[in-house]
């Protein structure tokens, strides 16, 4: 019987994924400082090559800053459709071979291959899968093999670029020990600075701090941090096929053929579950629209899309599906929207041609919805005849002392 501590977990990560796809289409880009993102000064870097990183460039950096650091960098606007295509190709290849896998993001996968060493040899099997992925996609991919997800992820980072690394069971702690503390997943700049102020520079030092003291410093996160520093991580590989969709639907009080009303409802529902996507830090790769007519006949139509969580992108697909699906001769009883094929990811990676202001706008909208509820902000098309609802704005007016009343009604 295989116990939890004797698991065998492989972590696969496509190296500089967006950059690698761009280089696949244009060989002349290989070995050069390449930035993927919007081309305007106000855009941000979605991804950058290793050559660009040597100049101090990193993802999410303003493009203007990146080009100041490396004026001769090459900029590509990005093609989410192509990135989604290759992500799905890798997913399909892993699905063919792996007994249990989790798609952690558009370019990152965890595989639980516990017990397979009895039949194939875990390292040999994983190496052959990596070779198959590279043969099919022509893209570089690295993997780490260890007894848990956290150590395998760190091993992958150490194996890059385009390499592989196995950490045998029992060597997790010694593998992590000499590394700087920010090599541990979950240790960001603030946590690292807090630990360094206390003289903690390496994972070894962190692992030797009494767990109670770390808990006193950082609360429950201190316990998690101690476990990671000691190479302990019991988190399971979540089967990809069990990833749930996000959906919503509305049964009308009276059957209708009012197209404008139904379109307003589609906008409202899309914004609602688009917000849920971003809250969960997920992207969707498939949009479905559902219509139920008054005779209870139910029809659906779906489309695979480049991974996104941006309302303005999702709305265009939802509206297009509705136009193709709706029979204007029949009364409608219910409409619904579903997002599926979900993967972990930040919605900002889809904003290749958008400015920092667009990203800031999404962040501001989501921040307000977090505070006052998802129904507080809506697109203008959902406010019938220019009317505003006191019920919708009252909580915010109370919170802000009424200071927003004039601005709200004046828009």
Number of helices: 16
Question: Could you tell me the mean pLDDT?
Answer: 85
Low-pLDDT ranges: 1-5, 347-351, 385-411
Task: Determine and state the CATH class of the largest domain.
Answer: Alpha Beta
Number of domains: 3
Task: Tell me the helix content.
Answer: 40-55%
CATH superfamily of the largest domain: DNA polymerase, Y-family, little finger domain
Q: Please trace the helix and strand order, writing H or E for each element.
A: EHEEHHEHEEHEHEHHHHHEHEEHEEHHH
Radius of gyration: 24 Å
Sheet/helix structural class:
alpha+beta
- Widest sheet, order of strands: 5-6-1-7-8
GO molecular function: damaged DNA binding; DNA-directed DNA polymerase activity; magnesium ion binding
Enzyme class: transferase
Cofactor: Mg(2+)
Family: Belongs to the DNA polymerase type-Y family.
Topology:
Elements: E1 9-14, H1 17-25, E2 34-37, E3 45-48, H2 50-53, H3 63-69, E4 74-76, H4 80-97, E5 101-105, E6 108-112, H5 122-137, E7 141-146, H6 149-159, E8 164-166, H7 172-176, H8 189-197, H9 203-208, H10 211-218, H11 220-229, E9 246-256, H12 259-279, E10 282-293, E11 298-308, H13 311-325, E12 332-340, E13 343-344, H14 356-372, H15 390-399, H16 405-410
Parallel strand pairs: 2-4, 7-8
Antiparallel strand pairs: 1-6, 1-7, 2-3, 5-6, 9-12, 10-11, 10-12, 10-13
Helix pairs in contact: 4-5, 10-11, 12-13
